[in-house]
Design goal:
elongated, 20 strands, 29% helix, disordered C terminus, 5-stranded antiparallel beta sheet, alpha+beta
């Protein structure tokens, strides 16, 4: 089966976030059958497939390759169409190349590599709804200290960092009253929310920090002073400290506005993921750049403002860069991928596998966890 057929097979299996079980089972069977991998599904439903070293010294350090199993909506009943070397959906759904192209490319590269280090292929669940699979992964099953996530678009770009991201959930409780008969007895939760939002710095705060109020809901009836309003906001920054400051500022704004009117604000701040950046000259980045150059492209590095599973892996001490899979217009019904780009991605991954032993010394700490990481030690007898 060639990579196009394999990819089309994969996207025909529905796996919207939260409903990945059947697809994970399919992959487990595929990896066991075709790669002779040892497959495990952790308590959260993530798949971990392990392959022994091939063609290198037995004590070669392991490498993690990761991608995610879930797709965004609408992702049910996908019918792939191949036309003029480009794969699209029929138009009613997304295609699911985000991230099944990544999975198919990893599979094909591993299958055809002449040599590779011990491999830990990690297929996470529910990446699209908050990196949940990576956050809940059983890390005791992973020994790799370096890895690559295949989950970006452009093949020539190596993503080396991302922001800290806080979600901010606000509930304002005022006091209900009849708006016509006795409005003076009421406290408007909507007004408190409005005052807070009007006074908030929002949008682009500085070149590495953003903030947004995305959802506001409040009130029940036209003729009632609204007792309750709910606000969902977020902020992110490449600087963790700035993200913390912005989140706290937003929290205070709601608390103060509510207090001014005699209402109460309950504000919950949650860290979705923490800013991480791997050094520009780290071994995984250097190897990725060489692989991209060997495929005839000009490599570039980039820091992004969104989260990927790599944010979580880096926080767990696995130095991880994100590579492109060739997808375009992901998260839309226009999502598509060129067959030639899938083949080139396979070439790049195969290069990583076949040249991994040249990466040099164990990774240094990422900026996030300097000093707190256990150094990589080659396990005896591997
Ligand atoms: Zn993705």
């Amino acid at each position: 089966m060639d990579i196009v057929e394999l990819f089309c097979d994969m996207v025909r299996i529905d796996s919207e976030s939260g409903e990945e079980e059947e697809f994970i089972r399919y992959l487990s069977g595929l990896f066991e059958r075709e790669l002779e991998a040892q497959c495990m599904v952790d308590h959260y439903g993530n798949l971990i497939a392990k392959l022994p070293v091939k063609g290198f010294e037995p004590e070669t350090e392991p490498l993690m390759l990761a991608a995610h199993a879930d797709t965004v909506k609408p992702g049910k009943g996908i019918e792939p169409v191949v036309e003029d070397g480009v794969i699209r959906s029929k138009g009613e759904t997304i295609l699911g190349a985000d991230d099944k192209a990544g999975i198919a490319e990893i599979f094909e590269a591993v299958r055809t590599a002449e040599r590779h280090p011990p491999l830990e292929i990690v297929i996470t669940r529910s990446e699209e709804i908050g990196l949940l699979g990576a956050k809940n992964l059983d890390y005791s099953l992973i020994s790799a200290k370096r890895g690559f996530v295949l989950d970006s678009d452009k093949l020539e770009v190596v993503i080396i960092g991302g922001p800290s991201h806080f979600s901010i959930d606000v509930e304002i409780i005022g006091k209900a009253a009849h708006a016509g008969m006795e409005p003076e007895k009421g406290i408007s939760a909507i007004k408190a929310a409005a005052m807070a939002i009007a006074g908030l710095p929002e949008g682009r705060i500085d070149e590495e920090t953003t903030a947004n109020v995305g959802i506001i809901r409040g009130g029940e009836i036209r003729n009632g002073v609204p007792e309750r309003a709910v606000v969902q906001a977020e902020c992110r920054s490449l600087s963790h400290e700035k993200a913390v400051r912005q989140a706290e500022l937003m929290k205070r704004a709601f608390e103060e506005a509510a207090a001014k009117l005699g209402a109460k604000a309950q504000v919950r701040i949650e860290l979705e993921y923490r800013a991480s950046k791997i050094p520009e000259d780290s071994s995984v980045v250097a190897l990725a750049k060489r692989a991209i150059a060997a495929a005839g492209l000009t490599p570039a590095t980039k820091v992004i403002t969104g989260g990927t599973d790599a944010s979580i892996f880096n926080a767990h001490g696995i130095e991880t860069a994100v590579l492109g899979v060739g997808v375009r217009a992901e998260h839309s019904k226009d999502e598509h991928i060129a067959v030639a780009d899938m083949e080139k991605a396979v070439e790049i991954i195969r290069y990583l596998l076949e040249n991994f032993t040249q990466v040099g010394a164990a990774p240094r700490s990422t900026s996030r966890s300097s000093g707190s990481r256990t150094p990589y030690i080659v396990p005896p007898g591997r």
